[in-house]
Amino acid sequence: MESSGILLAVLVLVCLSGPSAGYPNGKVKEACNNMMPLHGHSPQKLPKHTIEVNVTEFKPGDHVQVSLSGPPFEGFFLQARNAENVGDPAIGSFVLADKRQSQLLTCGHTKNSAVSHTSKSKKTHLDAYWIAPRDAPKRIQFLVTVVEKYSIFWVKVPGPIISQPNTPILRTTIGTLPTSSLVPHLTHPFNASDCGKKKFCVRNPSNCDPQENTCFFLSFTRDHDTVLVEMSGPSEGYIAFTLSHDQWMGGGDDAYICGSENRYVDISTASLVGRAYPEFDSEDALEEKSWRLADGVIQCSFKRRIHLPSSKRRFKLDASYYIFMADGEVGEGGIIQKHHRQPLITNAKYNISGLLKDIGGSRSPFLIKIHGALMFVAWMATVSIGVIVARYFKPVWPNSLLFGREIWFQVHRMLMMTTVLLTSASFILPFVYRGGWSEQAGFHPYFGCTVMALAIFQPIMAGFRPPPQAPRRQIFNWLHWSTGTTARILAVITIFMGMDLPALNLPDPWDTYTMLGFVAWHVGIDLILEIHGYCLIRKVEVLEDDRIQILQSVTTAEAQGHTFKKTVLFLYICGNIAFLIAFLTAIVQI
């Protein structure tokens, strides 16, 4: 009987207590509309907590940083609503700044339209980023419910109102804009006006403006024992910079990566060992991280202490290093892919916290640049001019000698030997740079080896040239001509391949069109001289057959032909030099 009475009393108590539910894990979807916790208590009237935002205006697609701060609290529930009717459903979506303390919830039909806590642990500050939708109203107000403890909470604490451009701003008495300039979410492109004056900068192309979406920008600003880092560049995946003791990436280098995934940028540190995947750090050594995505450009900034005794893999920032900048794609799951082009590398070591400089860099290693330059000089200038002289200018200086031999022969031999020397010197440089054979250069090295072999074979063959009247002279002439022609054709093909390899990568499509222009220029001059020679022979034959004049007319015709040839040769040399200068300038600028 006594037990029955106790049971009855418990049932009555349960029935009279009404609904009372707490959500220590933050799963508060039931409160999406009125934002009221089901705690069985009345909300407090005067809020102690504030919401801060980093902008007063927004456009669709913008990321707005929202901060909640105040005395220690256990839970919260944050939404963005139409400022002119806060009873409407939540608007837009959020991105988390700290997944350990906050989580995304879906209210109504809008995914990730609210943010709440993940546990009852005490907190005094947290951040989230609100993404403005395309159909956002003219004015947005942020509302938050804050739970200090189970029985003490505030409902729909009003935050700042932000508006779209050219919309009058509605002001509220609660919720103010932050006064600090160190906002966690960037709102504008970086500025290069202080480069070399107040901060150390690396830019590619040199002196480019980071407000343009083609500029890779990196700056370091020292502030006592910390350094503020700003980095931006066009990329749909990631941008990164690395500090290295040498110009070879992978020797335990100190890397800083800003990777974009799902419209969120993760800023992290890693070490590069060999050619393997970056080894990311478990502990975060960076402070005051900020980022922005706009027009295909990733921006990120952070602070780092100059000395980090607790982190052996992070370099001291008051020493000198080579600086690398790279960009590439981010794979599924946030995996950093290999950079799809050669990283930018400074030409010397620099102390980023020391003497302020505004420098550029090169995406092509110095040895590869020299390799390309020597090959252009050899196969665009010396060999082309040498072949033209030997083929068309034998009769032009018949009685003029240079060191005891005909001028055309000495010029031809000198230019051909110069070609062999330039090609040989250039040939070994990629092997020195790579430390062996490159498996990533496609067919370029195979064609290059063939050209090198033919270039060496030509002078060896010329050393066994038969006398002019020997029966084998005709065979030699055909072998010499065919070997040289094959070498030149393969050299041009090899150059076309090499111009777009990652280690050099001249500007596209300029390099292809300019090289095609050079080929057309050479073929055009060849045709002009060939046609001129044919016409000159026909003219001389007509003069001899008609017997109008005997020697004088023939000599006059040949003299006129020689003048024309010399003019064409002068123009040809000038044209070749112009093409050569264009390519050498492009190599210097990359």
UniProtKB/TrEMBL annotation:
Task: Please give, as recorded in its UniProt entry, the membrane topology of this protein.
Answer: Multi-pass membrane protein
Q: Which domain of life is it from?
A: Eukaryota
Q: Where in the numbering of this chain does the Cytochrome b561 domain appear?
A: 333-532
List UniProt keywords, sorted A-Z: Electron transport, Glycoprotein, Iron, Membrane, Signal, Transmembrane, Transmembrane helix, Transport
| Main location class | membrane
Gene3D superfamilies, A to Z: 1.20.120.1770, Reeler domain (2.60.40.4060)
**What cofactors are annotated for this protein?**
heme b
- Write one Pfam family the protein is assigned to: DOMON
What does UniProt give as GO cellular component? membrane
Task: Give the protein family.
Answer: Belongs to the FRRS1 family.
Q: Protein name, please?
A: Ferric chelate reductase 1
Species whose genome carries this gene: Varanus komodoensis
